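Backbone shapes recur. Consider a single case.
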Amino acid sequence: MPDVTKTAADAVEDAIAPPSIDAAAAPAPQSEKARSLWGDAWSDLRRNPYFLVSAVMIFFLLLIAAVPSLFTSASPTAGDLVKHFLGKPELGHIGSAEWLGYDGQGRSVYARLIHGTRASIIVGVCVTAIVTIFGGLIGMLAGYFGGVLDAVLSRITDIFFGIPFLLGAMVVLQSFTDRTVWVVVGALAFLGWTQMARVMRGAVITVKQADYVHAATALGAGTTRILFRHILPNAMAPLIVVATISLGGYISAEATLSYLGLGLASPTVSWGVDISTAVDQIRVAPHILLWPSIMLSITVLAFIMLGEAVRNALDPKMR
């Protein structure tokens, strides 16, 4: 017959005994930390090959624009018509002045390609920054306050939006005799902010209906705090996507205006200027037109790829 008393005592002892070492050592399950929209977007971007490729390309473009002397020691403006008139490329001499040949003024095409990166990047980045800040501010004010202010700002935006972008930039630049990089930046920014304003206005109208905005208003938060602490961070996603994609378009617009003779002009080194001067020698020296065109296409493609990757990461519908 089994010992009932001992069995009951053992059961009580087992019930009140401390957990075993293995049970105590086992970590308690932890809930996964919630990530924000930006955290999810960064996680998606790191796994997106389009983002990685475009980021590497843009990094090298920015490095070339910042420190062109790392890539060539040749002068982009010094020419020798006697020795280098329409010189053919020497593809075996990688990185040298004669690597991509010479143009009709005896200047190194490779050196001009490297130094021309700075003008294009400056125009693209500066125009994008200006139109994003100015257009975003106009759209945020119009979308948040509504009423008469929204009607006035929206009508002004519609007037500027109705002006053809390139045609308007040509008219503006025609009034300047000295068309420097900053003049081109100002002309493009003067007409390019309308799209940013429309995008930001729509985003703010959606965000201001959120519960956390109503809660901040009920708690007595000021207008400035609500706009820049609650609305702006949550309405920036579509603006960043449009700005990233538009950056490549502004670089292309600068090259187009320079090609037409209404943008940058010599002695400024620019891909658009080189493409314009290469048209006359396209049959005898096509390499003069080929290389700046390829560089321009790669740059625009890199920023468009980056914008598409950012759009896919920030838009939940694209996941």
Q: What stands out?
A: The CA atoms of residues 127 and 189 lie 5 Å apart. Residues 4-32 have pLDDT under 50 and may be disordered. The longest helix spans residues 109-145.
